[in-house]
Write a structure and sequence with these properties.
Structural class: mainly alpha
Shape: flat
Largest sheet: none
Number of domains: 1
Strand content: under 5%
Radius of gyration: 16 Å
Number of helices: 4
Order of helices and strands: HHHH
Number of strands: 0
Distance between the termini: 36 Å
Length: 89
């Protein structure tokens, strides 16, 4: 049984920055299709479809989170702890 390829989640911000640097067009904006193609190119040859989908979803969630933070849609550390405490009881 083949072991699935685990993405390196220890540095998701750097992974997104590297991904964006590789796909920025001449106008300074990123084209989603190019981002997807670059993300797939960066995966190892033995990658499964499931691995590729997980990688694309991870990059999407990182981009979405950064956009929310840039828009001021954040919570304090204390509020985050309170929210987590309700789930971890």
């Amino acid at each position: 049984m083949r072991r699935p390829v685990e993405p390196d989640l220890s540095r998701p911000q750097r992974a997104l920055e590297t991904h964006q640097e590789a796909t920025v067009g001449s106008t300074g904006t990123c084209c989603p299709k190019q981002q997807i193609l670059q993300a797939l190119e960066d995966l190892p040859e033995e990658t499964t479809v499931e691995d590729a989908i997980e990688r694309l979803y991870l990059l999407y969630k990182i981009e979405r989170g950064i956009a929310q933070a840039d828009a001021g849609q954040t919570v304090s550390q204390e509020e985050a702890r309170q929210r987590l405490a309700r789930w971890l009881v």
